[in-house]
Amino acid sequence: MNTHKVHVKKGDTVTVISGNEKGKKGKVLRVDYKKGHVVVENLNMVKKHLRPTQTNPQGGVTSIPASMSSSKVMLVCPSCGKPTRVQREIRDDSKVRICKKCKKAID
């Protein structure tokens, strides 16, 4: 089972560093470790056509966020509020992510 090393987790705030959505911020909704992709709230929106069902008899077209590569997003540090790279460190027998700019633990 091949998994990619992804630097963000579900619930993190990230900013997009390349592509059409460059500079926009959002919250991570889902992480796919097998593909190395993340789904960010209200970013990379695509149209999805829904067929009529009993709960939605009209059917129609809705917008949903699509996945993007985790290399296109950068974590926003909760303490300093700046986009930063992540350093991993072992503290008290657990791995901790550390902000490279302010040197504070992220989680």
Description:
The protein is mainly β. It folds into 2 domains: about 1-75, SH3 type barrels; about 80-105, no CATH class. Helix content is about 0%, strand content about 45%. The chain has no helices and 10 strands. The chain has strands at about 15, 25-30, 35-40, 45-50, 60-65, 65-70, 75, 85, 85-90, 95-100. The strands form 3 sheets. A 6-stranded antiparallel beta sheet has the order 6-3-2-1-7-8, with no helix packed on it. It has a two-stranded antiparallel ribbon with strand order 4-5. Strands 9-10 form a two-stranded antiparallel sheet. A hairpin with a 4-residue loop joins strand 2 and strand 3 (about 35-40). It starts with 12 loop residues before the first strand and ends in an 8-residue tail after the last strand. The model has no long low-confidence stretch (mean pLDDT about 95).
Search tags:
single chain; 107 residues; mainly beta; SH3 type barrels; six-stranded antiparallel beta sheet; 10 strands; 46% strand; elongated
Radius of gyration: 17 Å
Strand order of the largest sheet: 6-3-2-1-7-8
Name the helix and strand elements from N-terminus to C-terminus, one letter apiece. Answer: EEEEEEEEEE
Q: Gap between N and C termini, in Å?
A: 26 Å
Please identify, by name, the CATH architecture of the largest domain: Roll
Number of discrete domains: 2
Runs with pLDDT <50, length 5+? none
**CA-based shape:** elongated
- SS elements, strand count: 10
CATH class of the largest domain: Mainly Beta
Would you give the CATH topology of the largest domain? Answer: SH3 type barrels
Residues in β-strands, percent = over 45%
Structural class: mainly beta
Mean pLDDT reading: 93
Helix content: under 10%
* Total of helices: 0
Largest sheet: 6 strands, antiparallel
Please, what is the oligomeric state?
single chain
